[in-house]
Amino acid sequence: MFSLLYWVWIILGGILIGAGVHFIPVGGAPAAMSQATGVGTGTTMLAAASGLTGLIGAGSAYAATGGDFGYTIVMGGISAALMISILAFIANVMYVYGAGVPLASAKVKYDPISKWRQDLYVSRGTEGHGTPMSSFISGIIGAFLAGVGGALVYFALAASYAGIPGFGATFAGYPAPYYVSLAAAFAIGIFFLNCVMASYNIGGTIEGFHDPKFRRLPKSILASLVVSAVGGLFALLIVVMLPGGI
Amino acid sequence: MDPQMMVELGALTLVGAAALIAGVAEDLESDVGSQSNPNSQVQLAPQMGYLHRLYNKAISGEPASYPFYAAIGASTALAVLSITGNSSLIGVFFALVAGAFVTSLIHGVYATTSYMGRLASQSRFGQPIYMDVLRTHTPVLMAHGFVANFSVLLLTWVIIAQHFSPFPFVVLAFIWGIALGGVGSAVGDVHLGTDRYYQDRPYGSGVNAAHSGSVVRKAESGLRNSIDCAWFCSKFGGPLTGLGFGLVVYLHFWKEVVVTGWWSVLAGVIIVVIFIIMNTYLERYSRQRYGTYKAEAEE
Residue A45's closest CA among A185, A132, A146? Predict the structure, then answer.
C-alpha cells in the first residue's frame, strides 16, 4: 500500500546512508600502497559492502518478527557495524604484520579518542596508514548509520509491497516471497544512489569525523534528501501500477 | 543443545568454510589480474617509463565486479535448476558448478578485452602487449575466479536452504559478492600494493607517493609476471582475506543462530566491542614495536 509515511522513511533512510558514508574511513587506492589512512577501497563500495550486509540482517529480522520496526532497524545497523569492524581489524592486521607499518593518521597530530601522537608515526611521502582508533570508531558509527538507513528503506518498501495482493506468494519451491525480492532490489538501488552522491561529495578519501572533509556533510544531506525523495517516490509508485496497489 | 541449532551451526560452519575459500581465491585472482587498488601502479608504470610484464586488468573495482559475477552465476544456476528441479543435492551441486563456469567464461572475456584494451592504449609509452602473458595468465585468473564464485554460490545456497535469510538467491549472491569484493580489496591488496610491488624499497614503511609507478619488474629469475605475485600473496594476503570474509559471513549469522531476538543485537554489540579492544591492542603494539619514523625534535 502506498503511504506517505513510508516515503518519509525512505527519505530519512537515504539521508542516514549519505551521512553514514561520511563517517566511514576510506583510503581508496592509495591505502593499498599504505599511502593514506583508512580502509583501502572506494567510498561507495566500502559503504555498500557494510551497509548491504546490514540489509541482510535487516531482512532476516523483518522476516523473523513479521515486521517489527525497531528490531529490523537496529539489526540492520548492528550487522553493518559488525561487518566493518571485522573488515577494518583484519585490514589493520595486514598493515601491521604484512606491511610492517604502525597505524597512523596524517590529518591530526593527536588522535581525538586515544590521544596518541600521530604525526611521528607517518612514514615519509604518505598521508598515514591503516585505520587508527578514531577512524575505526568513526567507521563503526558510519556503518551503523548506513545500516540503519538501509534497513529503514527496506522496511518501508517491504511493508509497502507486502500489502499488494499475491505478493506474499513464493515462486515454485523457493522460500523468498515476491515482495521481499522486490523490496531488496529497490533498497539496494536507493542505497547505491545515496552512496554515490556522498562519494562525489567526499571526492576520494576521508578519515572519519575528524577529517576536514567531514564538514561538507550538510551539502550531502541536502543531496540525499532530493535523490531519496525522487528515487523513493518511483519505488513506491510501482504499487500504483499493480492491481490492488492503492 | 537444541538439535535444530546443531544442524544450523553445522551448516554455518560449511558457510564459513566456503567463505574462507572464496576470500582466498578472490584475493589471488585479483593478484594475478592486478585488479582493484594496486592496479593504479601497474597502469601508471609505463607512463613513468617502467615497462613491465604484469597483467593489467581493471574491469572495475573488485566490489563491483564480484557481485556482477555472483549474480550471473546465481541466475545461471537458477536457470539450470528450473529445468532439473532442486530436489537432489547432486543436481544443485552441478547447477552451481554450471553457474560458476559461465561466470568464469564471462570473466575471461572481460579480462582479455581489458588487458588488450589497456595495453593497446599505452602503446604511446612503448608498452608491448605480451601474448604469452595473456595466454598464461587468463586461464589462471579464470580458474581462481571459478573457485571464488563457486564458493559464493555454495554459501548462498546453504544460507537459502537453511532459511538463514529470506532474500532470493540472486540478490543474496549479489550482496555477498559486494562484501567479498570489499574484503578482498581492503585486505589482500595491501600485501600486493605495499609489499610485493615495492619489494626493492625498505620494508616497514608506506610507499612514498614520489615512487608511484616504479613497480618491481625483475623476478628472482628473469622478469616478474603476475603469477609470481599470486605465489607471494598466497602466503599472507590471500589467507588473511579468506579469514576476513569467513569471519564476516560466519559471525553475521552466528549471532542470529545461537541467540534470537534482541539477544542477537546484544551479541552483535559485544562482538563489535571485542574487535574495538583487539584493534586498540594491535595499534598500541604496532607503535611500540616499530617506533617512530622521525624524532620529535624534527617536527
Answer: A146
**Chain B contact probe: residue of A26, A37, A39, A41 with most B CBs at under 10 A:** A41
Residue A74 included in any domain: yes
B153-172 residues touching A, CB cutoff 8 A? 160, 163-169, 171-172
Q: Residue B199: its chain A contacts at CB < 8 A? A: none
What grid cell was written down for B42?
A: 601497474
Q: Is B178 on the interface with A (CB under 8 A)?
A: yes
Assess if residue A195 is contained within a domain: yes
Partner A, chain B 231-260, Cβ-Cβ below 8 Å: 236-237, 240-241, 243-244, 247-248, 251-252, 255-256, 260
> What ipTM was reported for this prediction?
0.94
Closest CB from B40, B178, B244 relative to A90 = B244
The domain in which residue A150 lies consists of 4-88+134-239
Q: How many CB atoms lie within 10 A of CB A125?
A: 14
SS3 annotation, chain B = CCHHHHHHHHHHHHHHHHHHHHHHHHHHHHHHHCCCCCHHHHHHHHHHCCCCECCCCCCCCHHHHHHHHHHHHHHHHHHHHHHHCCCCHHHHHHHHHHHHHHHHHHHHHHHHHHHHHHHHCCHHHCCCCCHHHHHHHHHHHHHHHHHHHHHHHHHHHHHHHCCCCCCCHHHHHHHHHHHHHHHHHHHHHHHHHHHHCCCCCCCCCCCCHHHCCCCCCECCCCECEHHHHHHHHCCCHHHHHHHHHHHHHHHHHHHHHCCCCHHHHHHHHHHHHHHHHHHHHHHHHHHHHHCCCCCHHHC
Q: How far apart are CA B15 and CA A228, in angstroms?
A: 35
- Residues of B with CB below 8 A from A60's CB? 164-166, 256
Which residue is listed with cell 563500495? A45
If 0-12 CB within 10 Å is exposed, 13-18 middle and 19+ buried, where does residue B191 land?
A: buried
Is residue A218 domain-resident?
yes
User: A39 in helix, strand or coil?
Assistant: strand
Tally of domains in chain A: 1
* DSSP H or E segment with residue A120: none
Residue A152 confidence (pLDDT): 94
- Say what the pTM is: 0.95
Q: What are the pLDDT tens digits along chain A (246 aa)?
A: 678 899 999 999 999 999 999 999 998 889 999 999 999 888 888 888 898 999 999 999 999 888 899 999 999 999 999 999 999 999 999 999 999 999 999 889 999 999 999 999 999 889 999 999 999 999 999 999 999 999 999 999 999 888 887 777 877 667 778 889 889 999 999 999 999 989 899 888 899 999 889 999 999 999 999 999 999 998 888 877 766 555
B124 and chain A in contact, CB less than 8 A: no
- Give the tens place of pLDDT for each residue, B123-168: 999 999 999 999 999 999 999 999 999 999 999 999 998 888 989 9
